[in-house]
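Example 166, ligand hydroxy diiron-OXO moiety.
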Amino acid sequence: MLTKKVEEFCNRQIEREGYSSNLYLAMASWAESKGMAGIGAWLYAQAEEERMHMLKFIKYVTERGGNAVVPAFKQPPVKYKGVKEMFKEVLKHEQFITGSINEVLAVAIIEKDYATTNWIQWFVNEQVEEENAVQIIIDKLELAGEAGLYFLDRDIMALRSTAPTE
Ligand code: OFO
C-alpha cells in the first residue's frame, strides 16, 4: 500500500508525464506544419512515449492500492520561435522531469517505500537516455545550421525509426 505522501507525488508525476505528452504533440504538429516531417515524427513518437510513462504511473498507483488521478492539463504553447529554440525547451523540460522523478524517489526513500524506490529506477535510467537523445539533436542542429535543416530533418526521421520504443 502506498503512503499518502508517495501517492501524492506519483499523482503529481501523472500530471507531468501527461503534460509532457501534450507538449510534444503540440511541438510535433508545429514542426509538421512548417514542413519538418522528420522532426514532427520524432516528436509524435516522443509524445506517445510520454503517454506510456503516464500510464505506467497510473497502473502502478492502482496496483499499490492508491487512487490514481487523471487531471486536467494546461494547454501547451501553439507556436515556437524556431526548431533549435524548441529543442532547447524540450531539454529544459526533460531536466525538469528528471528533477521531478528524483523527488518521487527521495520521498519513497524517506517513507521507507522500497518497492517504489526499486520500481522508479526504470524512470531514472529513462531520463538519462532522453536527456542524451535531445542533446544529440541540439548538437546536430548547431552543426547543420539553417541551410542544413532539410537534410537534418531527413536524418531525424531515420533516427526515430531505429530508436527503441517504450
Ligand atoms: Fe521524459 O519524461 Fe517521461 O519520464
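Summary: Residues 17, 20, 50, 53, 94, 97, 123, 126, 130 surround hydroxy diiron-OXO moiety (CB under 6 Å).
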